């Protein structure tokens, strides 16, 4: 039984050790703008007309800055104009690996330049539909630091 | 302790080796079910919001079927492993004279877990290469969830086997438990559960696994987003293993 408890504690330790801290900027876009300069791990919630997007910087990996956007809420206006697309967009993500070595802040503010080559996820597929332009606009607005 | 575990592992391994054809069938059955499922449901969804993502029915229900198949197969795999070896016809009494209950249980769990690991590898190959399910997330997360679900199935199967008095009773439990897991697993979309049982449903093992898989595969979320669900699933596994261990220790030589 002692070995079993020891193994359990080791597994827990392994899981806890694997999770490095991501700075939670809340809804402070400036704080996120500072963190993203060197691609530090941070997250921020940005809202615009009821649309809420979570932007997470996941840090550097193989000289690429990993950034993820998740649509947390879709505002009533978009829900009214695009009911089916709005329903499916909620909770979906866009994962981008930005392949540059510096000036991440600027790169992220021009994220649309990287959509085709460096991004993947269900939002990218939604960009091809009639909802695409709206999402692009929302992303651009939400990434002004 | 380690010696006893190794001994129990060897006994379990010999048991499996003797039943090679039955083992082979169990080994391929989850993959076969997924292939069958892919062959039938690989057609685009032409209704509602899923159209904009060009999803097929296979993509949409794949996560749910994966978890359900793995739990059902692993429970079935070990359901008779202890009750079937009990007296008056079994070998358990003889084995327990040489190996205490705890190492015996751990030995059985480890051997079956290795088997299930290989089973998951094959299934993972099927759903990522042969008949790929739509996946926006990290494929290794899919494998991890499959392993956790399988471990849950093993722990549940062994626990049922320990607490059952006869083989008949053990097999009677299976459909009842699988039905309960199915109802609480979130496979039926559009159903609102009563608010009093919603927290239980939200934390039921199959719901956690199903939601984690769906969020990873269809929403493309990262591991951090499903970490809480993974932790709860892990605690379900550890809890069931402990229940099985204690039950086995209490009932071992009866």
**How many domains make up the coordinates of chain B?**
1
The number of strands of chain A is: 6
**How many strand units of chain B?**
0
Largest interface by Cβ-Cβ < 8 Å: A-B, 29 and 25 residues
Mean pLDDT of chain B: 87
N-to-C CA distance of chain A: 54 Å
Q: What is the percentage of strand-forming residues of chain A?
A: 25-35%
- The number of helical runs of chain A is 8
The largest sheet of chain B is: none
Give the helices and strands of chain B as they follow along the chain.
HHHHHHHHHH
Number of distinct helices of chain B? 10
- Helix/strand structural class of chain A: alpha+beta
Structural class of chain B: mainly alpha
Low-confidence stretches of chain A: none
Mean pLDDT of chain A: 80
Extract low-pLDDT stretches of chain B.
Answer: none
Global geometry of chain B: globular
**Spatial shape of chain A:** globular
Report how far apart the termini of chain B are. Answer: 22 Å
Strand content of chain B: under 5%
Briefly summarize what is shown.
Chain A is α+β, with helices and mostly antiparallel strands and 145 residues long. Chain A is built from 8 helices and 6 strands; from the N terminus they run αβαβββααβααβαα. The termini of chain A are far apart.
Task: Please characterize this protein's 3D structure.
The complex is a heterodimer of chains A (145) and B (254). With 145 residues, chain A is of the alpha+beta class. Chain A has one domain (23-142). Chain A contains eight helices and six strands. Chain A has helices at residues 2-18, 29-36, 76-81, 83-89, 104-109, 115-118, 122-127, 132-142, and strands at 23-24, 42-48, 51-61, 64-73, 93-98, 119-120. The longest helix of chain A is centred in the N-terminal third of the chain and has 17 residues, at 2-18. The mean pLDDT of chain A is 80. Chain B is mostly helical and 254 residues long. Chain B has one domain (2-190, 200-251). In chain B, helix 5 (101-130) runs antiparallel to helix 6 (139-163). The longest helix of chain B has 30 residues, at 101-130. Chain B is globular and about 65 Å long. The mean pLDDT of chain B is 87. Chains A and B meet through helix 1, helix 4, strand 5 and helix 7 of A and helix 9 and helix 10 of B.
């Amino acid at each position: 039984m002692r070995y079993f408890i020891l193994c359990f504690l080791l597994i827990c330790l392994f899981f806890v050790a694997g999770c490095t801290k991501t700075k939670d900027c809340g809804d402070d876009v400036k704080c996120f703008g500072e963190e993203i300069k060197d691609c530090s791990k941070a997250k921020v919630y940005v809202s615009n007309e009821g649309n809420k997007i979570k932007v997470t910087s996941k840090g550097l990996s193989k000289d690429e800055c990993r950034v993820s956007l998740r649509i947390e809420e879709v505002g009533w206006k978009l829900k009214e104009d695009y009911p089916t697309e709005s329903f499916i967009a909620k909770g979906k993500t866009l994962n981008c690996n930005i392949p540059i070595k510096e000036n991440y802040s600027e790169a992220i503010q021009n994220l649309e330049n990287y959509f085709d080559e460096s991004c993947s996820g269900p939002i990218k597929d939604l960009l091809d539909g009639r909802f695409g332009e709206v999402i692009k606009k929302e992303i651009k607005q939400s990434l002004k630091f | 302790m380690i010696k006893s575990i190794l001994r129990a592992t060897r006994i379990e391994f010999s048991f499996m080796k003797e039943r090679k054809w039955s083992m082979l069938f169990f080994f391929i059955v989850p993959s076969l079910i997924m292939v069958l499922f892919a062959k039938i449901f690989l057609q685009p969804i032409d209704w509602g919001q899923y159209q904009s993502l060009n999803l097929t029915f296979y993509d949409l229900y794949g996560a749910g079927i994966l978890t359900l198949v793995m739990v059902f197969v692993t429970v079935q795999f070990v359901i008779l492993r202890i009750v079937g070896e009990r007296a008056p016809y079994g070998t358990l009494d003889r084995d327990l004279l040489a190996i205490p209950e705890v190492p015996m249980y751990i030995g059985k769990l480890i051997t079956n877990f290795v088997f299930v690991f290989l089973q998951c590898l094959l299934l993972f190959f099927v759903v990522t290469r042969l008949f790929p399910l739509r996946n926006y997330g990290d494929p290794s997360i899919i494998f991890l969830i499959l392993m956790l679900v399988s471990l849950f199935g093993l722990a549940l199967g062994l626990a049922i086997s320990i607490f059952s008095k006869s083989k008949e009773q053990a097999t009677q439990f299976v459909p009842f438990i699988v039905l309960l897991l199915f109802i609480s697993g979130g496979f039926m979309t559009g159903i609102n559960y009563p608010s009093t049982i919603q927290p239980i449903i939200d934390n039921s093992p199959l719901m956690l696994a199903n939601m984690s898989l769906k969020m990873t595969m269809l929403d493309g979320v990262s591991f951090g987003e499903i970490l809480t669900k993974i932790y709860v699933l892990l605690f379900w596994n550890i809890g069931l293993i402990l229940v099985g261990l204690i039950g086995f220790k209490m009932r071992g030589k009866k």
